[in-house]
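**Reference record**
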Amino acid sequence: MIKADKKIRIWTLSDGKPGHANQTEGLTQALAQYRHIKLVNRPILSRFNVLLMLILNKCGKLVQSPPDLIIATGHRTHLSLLAYKHCYGGRIVTMMSPSLPLSWFDLCLIPRHDKPKERDNVIETIGAINRILPSHQQIPNSALIMLGGPSKHFNWDENDVLTQMDTLMVNHDDVQWTMASSRRTPKDFINKVRKRFPAVDFVLAEETSAEWLPKQMQESEQIWVTEDSVSMVYEALTAGAKTGIIRLPVTKHTRVTKEIDQMVLGGYLSTVFTDKPGKDEKIPQKKFEVLNEADRCSKLLLNKFEL
């Protein structure tokens, strides 16, 4: 419920990375569910301008509507956040573990795999916040497979991925499947998938609009993601789909790989059952919970700052 008497002025900064913009948009979108907000996009400042503002107090002309909040994601935005606050006020919010001291920020939203310190100005999140909205409009017997590609955390084992996809097709033969590549998916592998599953609708990442994937996620009853695509795993869970991962060999156990394992053990994620599956045997779906970290964190933020 939006409080009509509460209006918040929010400045946002972008470092140009789509993933970071996705996080910032997810939080501001959630805040708009509870307050009337006015968004203003501000540029990242050069180091010279940061120096002028922070050290020499040269802030330029005053703004008519100073911000209540300044929100950004990405290490390149941190100095600008501090400079804008110094000159124009407002609380500054970073949506990651900052490269500068935590105490310099009014609020840090940090994924738990980064093992944030317990502080009054830190909120631990399950994965990165995103702009996907939970959906209750899933189409029955619909499923989406999202394919990643080589990464520093996992080996891209094409044969193993294809085997798991075969298992999914056999055990869910009553499902309407859609497959989507990412920009990391090897072209040769895309050709193999198309040859192996000619009847399945395959969508190339470069041929979709920015809104295609969120809509597809919200309409899919179940979503399977190769586990290298960590951000997509959290987006699928946020959409409210029954979410599973296509396993990959781990190159080295890191905070990211351990987080995925924790999500499997916690019942958030299913895995593909490939040990001699029978034709009529269904892949077990564990209990799953809908994540909505943007909504949870927006309410905590509003309460903390009494906005």
Observations:
- The radius of gyration is 22 Å.
- The chain has two domains: 3-131+294-305, 139-271.
- Residues 276-284 have pLDDT under 50 and may be disordered.
